[in-house]
User: Fold these one by one.
Assistant:
Number 1:
Amino acid sequence: GGNRSGLYRVQDTDGDDQFDQVTLLKKIDGKGEHGPHAVVLAPDGKSIYFCAGNHSNLIDVETSLVPQTWQEDQLLTRMWDAGGHAVGKMAPGGWIAKTDPEGKDYELVSIGFRNQYDLAFNAEGELFTYDADMEWDVGSPWYRPTRVCHVTPGSEFGWRSGTGKWPEYYPDSVGSVVDIGPGSPTGIVFGTGARFPAKYQRALFIADWSYGKIYAVHMEPQGATYRATYEQMIAASPLPVTDMVVNPVDGALYFAIGGRGTQSGLYRVTYQGSEATSPIERRATVPAERTLRRELEATLGNQSPASRDLALKRIAHPDRRVRFSARVALEQYPVAEWQEDALGLEDPHSVIQTAIALTRTADKGLQSQIVDHLAKLDMQALPVAEQLDAVRAYALALIRMGQPSPELARRVLEEVDALYPATDPRLNRELCQLLVYLEAPQVAQRTVALLANAATQEEEIAYVLALRELRSGWNAATREAYFKWFRDASLLSGGHSFSRFLVNIRNDAIGTLTAEEKASLGELLTAQPVGQVSTLPPRKFVKKWTVNELLPIVEQGLTGRDYQRGRRLFTQGACFKCHRFAGQGGIVGPDLTGVAGRFNTRNLLESMIEPNKVISDQYQSTQFALDSGKSVIGRIVNAAGDRLMVMTDMMNPDKLATVLRDEIEVMKPSSVSLMPSGLLDTYQEDEILDLMAFLKSRGDPQHEVYQSAAVPRKPNVLLVSIDDLNDWVGVLGGHPQAKTPHIDALAGRGTLFTNAHCQAPVCTPSRASMVTSRLPSSTQLYFLQPHLRASAVVKHATTLAEYFAEHGYDTVGVGKIYGGQEPRYFQEYGGSFGGFGPRPKTKLSHPQGHPLWDWGAHPESDGDMPDTKITNWAIEKLHTLGDEPFLLSVGFYRPHVPMYAPKAWFQQHPRESITLPRVLLNDRGDLSQYARDLTDGFPAPRHHEIVGAGEWSHAVQAYLASCTFVDHCVGRLLDALAASKHADNTMVVLYSDHGWHLGEKQRWAKRSLWEDATRVPLVIASPGGQVARCARPVGLIDVFPTLADLCGLPADSSWEGQSLKPLLGQADLPWDRPAITTFGPNNHAVRSTDWRFIRYADGSEELYDHREDPHEWHNLAGNPSYTKILEEHARWLPKTNLPAMMEVESYGMKAYREAEAGRLKRAKQLGN
């Protein structure tokens, strides 16, 4: 009841099983939903750990494992949340502390959380928590999803208010174990003691209050910390889970629901099955890195010269957590004791970490020496992860030690300026901030160019946020491009504060302009604010509805509703002005997308009819009584200096009132909700049903509330992508020694397309074409870089995975699918697991050239291969996917170079009996100079080099071994599907992104318009589907429309591919459409049933008759007898040829540039 916020001891003093004595042990200055939370007992029973969210001031502590030197550490000016949340809240944010059982001595353990609700120790004594996201930040570069954190002594997790949240890669913080996504974390508990299978006894169960879910997080040791995957265990709508516990008596998991006035309840979860549930043993071995980390943590508060020296020694360790713990341990000593030793270190990790330690502890006069210390680094040669660390160290030297002298600023620029722009967007973000701070030459021009080609909206916003403070170095063109971005940003979407943040960024940027600049930019500065909603006429009164009156009507009437009318009613009620829903709307009230997961029907009706009944402190306004007698009610959005800026009109968030602090007599939370009463009183009964259905649907037009009767269950899709697999597949006959029994078996129960081709002979554009169903000539994507979202044409296109998500599918991906940035496209992404690794310390067979070009037997075990780990993750996911239709995309990395596979796979293809591809020595003699230029100049070795080194048979052996290995992975995946509950309702589509030369045409690798580079395996197999071999020419561009057609989803007019459904099982149907492959603007191949026609940008042509010339040795284009064939094929050449985006250098561009330069030179010589 009236107890103050704090840590209490509650006792039963007389043994009657009733608590009768309450003792306040420690007052905690914090309350509400971001106040104090969990209390847990340490495994040894000697300490009590407790935590508090970021609205709780830190308690007084006797000791601290965290160095008490925390600051905001923002290089550029932080923007407070545009919706007014946590304005003025400073570091350390949410914290974790511990005390003795008597509550006498307190020690700070960890900081930098947003709102961690609960704590849990695993069986190995390691502490974990589940931290909240700031859902209003969704869509911004500073958004951090809900995440599971491994809480080690002295750790910092980097929460800062507003735009100030630290990225997870900052070296002065520690990252998460696994990111979950949007949600509201509540209780967590390990499965220790549960009568569950072993996997779940080790799992961490975490609760999400908003979306009504319980996840099981499965961790494996990774160095000094853990890596993890997660699965959805329990979900319902609504299911507002608050806390969980494992009962040691019956071994069941119990969880409670409730909160914010919702219905409370208690549930019990038991295991029903045949797996063993006996208690598991603790892991037998402890990783050496964890031992090192604990050794360093044991020195905190126990200072000695030996411990100091240990910290300096371990600060160079390759494990991030060990390095972090070493730096924390070092910082507890007087800087004079270790400064000289630190400045003498040379190892990159040592230099970076000691520089960070010095910026946090040393006198400001050391700034120049710290910069000199960092200048030891060869920034260009460092891996990206270390470049990121080094740039952060430079930034901290400026943040902590003040504005540098012009000379010192010049020295910093000498070290970092040449890095910008980089290929890694994270590095670009950090470099951009540093260079803006230093007002580097041309930083505006370089950043605006990056802005125009950014792959994601998060990258774009990071650039505009940094540039808003830059006053010098602009020209008219870059200023105009910068402000045009805001005009066009209405296509972007994000969380609750998103649109207002964009308005504030623009306003800050306008504030840096001179009067002349403002005049020249004109109406660009006065355009309608981003995200503004038009005013709608008021609705007429219908009747005064009550909860009890509407409850039975709604509970019985939510079938066959009208989605479009529900959305229109949501708009007419002005709901979008305050609330976000499915990525659209205002920034004042809570995001309602997941409201059906946390509120039942009665709760929803009550919140609309009686909004004052329950008001969350997260959305509560403040009432100010001023000494003038005036009253102001609203939300504080800025608290700067002697005044408060208060949003008083929720329908017009730009309208702010100024309240002077010294004029405030009384300031208290308002008891009146910002949401007006009586909103439903203007709706008819049928309209209320459509509005409630809209809220229940979470914005999904295919939700069950819109189904009038039972509808057929949508099929699941297993999409299997293989990297660089040509036609060396048993059933395709590309090589007589190919062993791919599992792919062959799949083809034997579906339709095998024997004349399938990619649309680009390079990974990124080929995959972009497949997932957008657009030709490269329409997407502007021709080469390895840039990625999909860099093209203005398809920047906002709905890709395959996003399309399926929009139509009610759970979309899950793992491995290489899009060729980069996979997590942004899937609802859940499992990772790349090392991608093209693991690699030996030195190359095995091809010591020169690109680091990926190598082959040989490596590593020792299948278990070390990324594709094995990808398969394991996908198999586990198959077992946990529920009854909702799903798209599971699995992308394998082999046989892409390096062509490594364990020795056992090489033994299946003995080198001494390898059959080499057939190669015609003068094969390229009938090609144009342009064709030769375009297909040379790549990082792949030359054919004569491989032959001369005696490595041809070895490389072919490696490719065959890699193909057989990846086929084995495919087989395991298909076997798991067959054994799962999804087997009878899942179609399988298997493909490769493009082909691969292994000497043919005297070439290696891809990047050509010939058969070896374009032909790919493509199999579509559905349960009960017909079996066929189809020789019709088809492309990967057709996969997207085909899947939509097979799943009963509507087609999109932007697709350039077409559905292959008519050909499934009916391979002889008429089909007059060829397959088109493109490599650079105006370079196209047209593959029909019998012919390959190629035309290059210089007009030169090739024609091959595949009935007589399957190896494409004889170019017939110059023979007049084939003029008609040439004309028939030329009519299929793309009419649109958008220019290539050449701003980001990548493989392929060099050869294209040289070919184009040669073409232009020859044309000039001819006088054309």
Note: The longest helix spans residues 952-979.
Number 2:
Amino acid sequence: MNLSRPFILRPVATLLLSLALTLLGALAYRMLPVAPLPQVDFPTIMVTASLAGASPETMAATIAAPLERAMGQIAGITEMTSSSSQGSTNVIVQFDLERDIDGAARDVQAAINAARSLLPSSLKTLPTYRKANPADAPILLLALTSKTVDKGKLYDLASSKLQQTIAQVQGVGQVSLMGSALPAVRIELQPQQLSHYGISLDTVRQVVANATTNLPKGELQGEGLHWWVDANGQLTKASDYTNLVVSYQNGAAVKLSDVARVYDSVQDQYVAGYFNDSPSVMMGITRSSGANMLATIDAIKAQLPIMQKMLPKEVQLSLAMDRSPSIRGSLRETELTLLISTLLVIAVVFLFLRNARAVLIPAVALPISLIGTCAAMYLLGYSLDTLSLMALIIATGFVVDDAVVVLENISRHLEEGAPPLKAALDGSKEVGFTVLSMTASLIAVFLPILLMGSIVGRLFREFAVTLSVSLVLSMIVSLTLTPMLCSRLLRAHKHDASGAPVQPNVFYRAIERVLNAVSDGYASSLEWVMRHKRLTLLSLVLTVALNLFLFTAVQKGFFPDQDTGMLMGQMRADQAASFQSVHPQLLAFSRLIQSDPDVASVMASTGGGAFGSRNTANFFVSLKDSSQRKSTATEIANRLTRKASGVPGASLFLMAGQDLRMGGRSANATYQYSLQSDSLDTLREWSPKVYAVLRKLPELTSVDTDAQSGGQAVKLVIDRIAARRLGLEMTNIDDFLNNAFSQRQVATQYQALNQYYTILGLAPQYTQDPEVLKQLFVLNSAGNAVPLSAFARLQSASAPLAVAHQNQSATTTIAFNLADGVSLQQAKAAIDAAVISLGLPGSIHGGMQGTAQAFVAMASAMPWLILAALLAVYIVLGMLYESWIHPITILSTLPSAGVGALLLLLATHTQFTVIALIGVLLLIGIVKKNAILMVDFALHVERQHDWAAERAILEACRMRLRPILMTTMAAFFGALPMVLQTGGDAALRRPLGLTICGGLALSQLLTLYTTPVVYVYMDRMGSAAKRLWRRRRPRSSVPASEN
């Protein structure tokens, strides 16, 4: 049966079908969303809660723990982590990849409602949730600056006008404000004055709370008119509070201004932010899970002119960091690589065919297959990203293979004197099954990836499907359009008097002489190999052994580092450092970073419990375009970290922002190792020991830990008997301390666009030294002032600045980067050895987390994935050839490809990552094409002419040498631009190009000799098995009664 026949005979219909496919693909290409990587995100929800003045331990015990218990019952959770700092708790819940994010959000809200009765009564607002992962790098950073407007007003403008506008944009997950706080009225009490008048802090709190109300007041209804009843019960600015009467002494009113300083300020005074050197309020925007990054960024940027008009003229809204230029630049580089690969492949075809008409045929088939693939990508909801474009780059070599195989066979018939139509019909019929076999067996390589449920499987599913679709389209085009074009465009070859084809020009004759010399040399060397079959077979066995050795020798990693044009990290001062001492260090680091010639801008912020403890500052660094700098993002981060080591009193941790982040932890380095225990005391005892050991490992750099248990605390040791005798209850004492030191929110001002708080506390001179506590008085139930020293003594203690949980257990996470030239595999081995040497107690469990954990899972799955791909190919080939034996012949070509790939990775000091693994799987599909071309032809002539196996395979090698060389060189040069390209995300594509080029270079040399030998041995084995079966079959068929 000739599948190509109806298409050859109906050229108009064939051309129109091809044109329709091309137009659909071109239209789909323009509508494809653009992204850095496939949209693969773990559904992640972040729950936040705040309680002013609460310590990290209090937040962890009273808020984080009840929420974790309630949410721990939700189905589909893969990881739940929490971080509690001063006045703030974040609980990050990650779900299985199959879990619907909206359904998960409903379950989280139900869990929050269920935990409501267990939360502290002082928690004014319920915890809220967002569909966002705080570990994700922001996609956009905006800065509000002004020379005349104070930062509280800037923060109010951002919160009231801009935050909601941006949050409404499709794809936005979270809009975080940094650098200041909302405006507030601050009341700073003078405890000596209060004691003089006999007024308690709680009395002041109640007076202020009762003085500003906004309750319903009713209405009046007359016969003809209607009135609303209102009053001036709402106080909105500091001047409204100063005349509040707090108490009466001897008939005289004691006003709030008599015992306190009242002024307009901000809710939290311990917050600061800078854009370069300018005080700034910053807005960090992250995308929601599954949202398209570039579409989201473009939608936000389209709103910027509108938002600028919403602001006063003296306020500037600046785009501080934008991920879209680096993403688009990377995609332009990848598209250029695709174009270069296409041109190189066409040049290879021209080199072999040396006929403009003949070259035109695969040159037409190639873009049709690639452009048509875009239509399938659009229907499947895929994006135009680095991996899908890499699939199209690789497809250039594959797609042309099918057309070349058909074209070469038809050309051979023309050389033998057949007219073009007959040559097209006969030639396409002969290789139709070969093309089908090559395509089906190559697609089978990707079946294990398509069935993988991990993040790796999801990440590369788009790559595998895109490449598979292009292969299917290539097969269809090569069996329909290609033979039809051959029948119309090719001409019968002219022959001389001796019957040999006439060679038209010098170039043609020169290349032909080279190819003939290669063919003759190959034929001679093959004869020698066939005389030494056992030696050849031994070399194949040694190649298999060498594969195993090289696989263990090559260094392994998870995912190549990207250069996204952004750095992010944190400055950490001494754990006992105050906000006042951290502030100048933040400015010093910011100026140091700005001085680097590769840095475009710097954003830094400190303070605010949601963004770290008081001794830390967060940095976001925008780099210049990759064309304007010589260093990669990782190199710049390492350089700045080394320079920052000279700044005393603090440490700086920077890392390159990555599009692929695993887990929900925000850390100061790329990789994490965590320790878990149900005993917090045991964890605090051993965490510093593990941290100290890991810091000494030469394989690791930028080692950091989130275990900050060395903060200073002042503990009041209360004599309960004495306090009771003096008329004091613990609630009186706690309320006093809360009112004095927690920046307590005692009233709410409801205004048109936002709500603002009134903050109560002591004057600054009473909040800067623990010894001041001895001067304070607490009013008892009789109204008498009782000094704290009468019933309590001060005790110095240490306290954590943050408390972390993972899956409801206390956790310490140690983050680290890799030293130059060190692989993640080496780092893991060093960490495991160091931890084992410490002899951790059984109550502590350690393990890799995030990206490092994904690497551990991938490393254990690598051999099984390769084995599964081999098995899938064997099954498909066995079904196609109806043979148990010759699929092994075809698969025998793979060991040499593996050796070549691994050798080139070792020679270039490139790690074996997920990208390299995909390259090895692709080699399984590429290299076996050579064997298929040989085996398919050998089986054909063996059956048609009743030839011996050795004669048949030798003839196949002679006849198929040129198409084998052509297809291999096409695949090689199609991948070569990925090896040679520099800048941008070239490091992401290079491992794929290296494995393919290395594998093809060596396998091309070896398989041309090993495949014929294996074919002969497999044929002999099959014949022996048949003879044994025939001898055993008569015996088994004799009835038992005859024996």
Note: The chain has a mean pLDDT of 84.
Number 3:
Amino acid sequence: MSAKIKNKVLVYEGSNYLRYRLLLSTLSGKPVKITNIRTKNDDPGLKEYEISFIRLLDKMTNGTKIELNETGTSIYYNPGLLHGGELEHDCSLQRGIGYYLEAIMILAPFCKSRIDLKLRGVTNNTIDPSVDRIQTAGIPILKKFLTGDNEVILDIRKRGVVPLGGGEIQFKCPINRNLKTIQLEDSGMVKRIRGTACSIRVSPAIANRIVESAKSVLLKFLPDVYIYADHCKRSISGKSPGFGVTLTAETTKEVFFSGQAFSPLMTTGSLPCVPEDLGKEAAIKLLDEIYRNGCIDSAFQSMTAAFMALGKKDVCKVVIGPLTPAMIQFLRDLRDFFGVSFKIEQIKEEEDATLSQQNEEDLPYEEEILRNPYSVKHWQRYIDHLKSTNSKNLNVVYERALKELPGSYKLWYNYLRQRVSQLKGRCIIDPLYEDVNNAFERALVFMHKMPRIWMDYCTLMTEECYITRTRQVFDRSLRALPITQHHRIWPLYIHFLKKHNVYETAVRVFRRYLKLAPEDTEEYIEYLISIERLDEAAVKLAQIVNQDDFVSKHGKSNHQLWNELCDLISKNPSKIKSLNVDAIIRGGLRRYTDQLGPLWNSLADYYARDIYEEAIQTVTTVRDFTQVFDAYAQFEELSLKKLIEEAARNPTEEDDIKLELRLARLEHLMERRLLLLNSVLLRQNPHNVAEWHKRVKLYEGQPHEIINTYTEAVQTVQPQLAVGKLYTLWVAFGKFYEENGQIEDARVVFEKATHVPYTKVDDLASVWCEWAEMEIRHGNCKEALKLMHRATTMPARKVAYHDETETVQMRLYKSLKVWSMYADLEESFGTFKTCKAVYDKIIDLKIATPQIIINYGLFLEENNYFEEAFRWPNVYDIWNTYLTKFLKRYGGTKLERTRDLFEQCLEYCPPKYAKALYLLYAKLEEEHGLARHAMSVYERATNAVLPEERFDMFNIYIKKAADIYGVPKTRQIYEKAIEVLNDDNTREICLRFAEMETKLGEVDRARAIYAHCSQICDPRVTSNFWQIWKEFEVRHGNEDTMREMLRIKRSVQAMYNTQVNMMSAQMLNNASNQISDVTLDAMRLLDSKITSNADNAADVKGVIKFVRGVTEKDGKSESHVNNPDEINIDIDDENDNDVEIEEGTTIYLQIASKLSYLIYKYI
């Protein structure tokens, strides 16, 4: 029945398919209402298992709204968000766990987090799919749709049957919201059958009876049948008795079919359930499922349809068996919830072509062969046609082709491969094998130089297990082929030899092979060892060890080969007779001094204790020491055990003494193991600080040895070569004296420690700090302050902290660690002034961190110096760090709080530090706030920053406004910038503003901007501006606009000329009144010189004149051809209207220009 929609709610009637409708509602997020649930039954409303399922959905989701009426016959379900996670649920015993798990498998990939679900209840019943069926047939379908990490786990921890249950499973599935599109159109052939027969609280023999009964049916169809008998005991056996079986068939295309049968609930008067009947029932159900065909088990058709509907938009094809009623209704419900429709087609088997049709199709090819009997192309075309039709005449046509073309490698190769493929599945004694061998022999008559033919023939003969014939074929191939192709035959030959126990033949063949490929000697040695021919193997191994140019194919070094030789010799002393064992091993000891352990052990197997004692005092690596020591201890234990056994047979007094001596020797060896190991490590690297500390611990309780060890350590370890922190040895040495009450000796140690040339300043700082802490522990606070004062005293000459050419003692005065402790001590034991002086010194040295500044502020606040506790510029780093961390932590989640912080920070922020904070504030608004807020912040920033930073800020403001609101929005910003910025920046802004208006097509606006900007552009200084305006008018103007531009230019030039004259006169007047003060300043001296020169020039030549409107040249005019069509733009008028200066006034104008420039620079 289709759904009705009321107020955007899908409404269904009846209890059928309630589970899947709630499932689809959860996936789609659409609310659903189901009414008339069993209203006509004696027990109306929801069943217990349905209520349990609804509770499970509520656990998996967040925000689900469920409404039931009083009788339980109507339910309203509004799903929440799937969140998954770790869940536990007790399922109703009326239905199996499979009832719940079928739905959970569909929901699991779409949860917010990886689901880890534990279900308890009935694992096997007669109604629902068992957990075994879901595990073997359902999980593979789920994995086919998942991408990436598709590790789905279904763990059956306990089994339980009706009526009491007691089963438990755990289901884990990764989140995977992007499902794959699959194409399952071929189910393949069944290749194996597996199953699980379980017996719960009954005799194990019942499971065996089920297995035998099921196999009696299935073995008639397939030999590969294996059914596991799972007998549940004790805690995993559930609470009720029962038994059953689940069978699964796997095909060659990894398609799984399943069948199950379980014992029903036994009631009064019911017939007993026979195990044999259950086994046959399950086998018949499995065969029926296979007969249904398709690529999906019928129990999981709905899950497949759901994943197909929820996957990508690509076409997904799946062949399934006959549709179940549940599947048909599920498809209808999918259409209601998701609007998805499925195209269902029935597959029709193609009828095989009749023999007569095949013969008719062969006729064209036969005619071509008759016309071209010697054409390989035509024969191959005919053969390809026969292959496509699976014709039985394929071999006959090949033989016909080879009779005509016996020298064709292509035909022979394809024919032989075809014949070999026909041998699959046949016994090696089948006569067809001999026929194929004969075909190879016939081919080799013509193809004896073709290595591929020989390789296929040898491979086939190896499978047939004819040893002599196969060896002869290999020898023939090696004789027939050139030496350059032998490398293709020998691997097959060696494989054949290893496959059969023909040792003498194999050794002889290997010797031949090594003449061609000596690099494979290791393979020969391994074979000799495997057949227990150890003496020859040792001789061969010794030969390659002594060859300096030998390169191992397995990547083994010469040393590894030495170890193998020594192991082989030492473990088989009676079988190695052709080598001098002692000379070989001792030669390795002299040669490989860094890896002596295995070699000493090998030699010790011959000579025992003396060699062990020599080795333990010689090795220099831990691995060698461990191997030698373990072997030595094992040797002592075995010798002691053997002596005890001998004493037990014939006890004497001397035996007791020997036993005590051997036991004391073993105990002494074990007691000094750690010291010996430590000695090895220190011999290996005497500058290892950690090992010196370990050595001190080994001498615990021996003060004299500890002092000697510390003394030796600090004298041995060099700071430049130390592994670890050298200062820890000095500190530990001083603390040792302190713990034993020798404070003066501890001070002596610390004093010496402060003069050690450490590699890092921090090491020396740690020594001073530890010394001060020791003084504090003993109540010498003043002495601690004196130590810190000594440590922080500046050296005679100032050095850089990171200059490693200077000693650490010279650079200690800038150590933050020492200053931090000094400040802490002053806060605790000093005065306010001394502590404040320390903090000020830290700031002066520029080594203060934000934490130091905060501590300083808190200290001042505690002492009521509030005005110094939190002031600019010291708080800039604090605000900057705090705001950056705050934004990184919360982003836009606490937007109002972040805005309050920025407003509080910027309230008293000096302009010098405002730019970075305003940019950070604006970035916050852009990423998490509103665009208009960001623009407001940028606008405030243009007023708050330094004057020299306003131009950059306006540029940022303009760019952001253009990105957010578009280019037209920037007009107001340009206008404000022109009003606020200085002349140079205003000129650049005007040019960009005019360029923008030009791009927008607003030519008149751009011309007005150029006119406005021209008032601050002196043509003699800013010629670039006038050139740009001129180019603009050429492109977009006319003759009138060009004349207007030139007119403005002349007026501006005249204005600047007037200003220069006025400034010059004023400068001359000032210079004449203050001539006596010229020597006070270099600038005044220069001004006075320029002024006097200008006066002289003015006296000589007179006054400035302007050029007339028409230029005359001695009454002569040049001839000019007039073009009536010419447009007179009057571009050169600016040159004709320049100011003409008489000869006597030129110097004066130059002086005046220099004066105006000097005045401008001075201002």
Note: Residues 1039-1073 form the longest helix (35 residues).
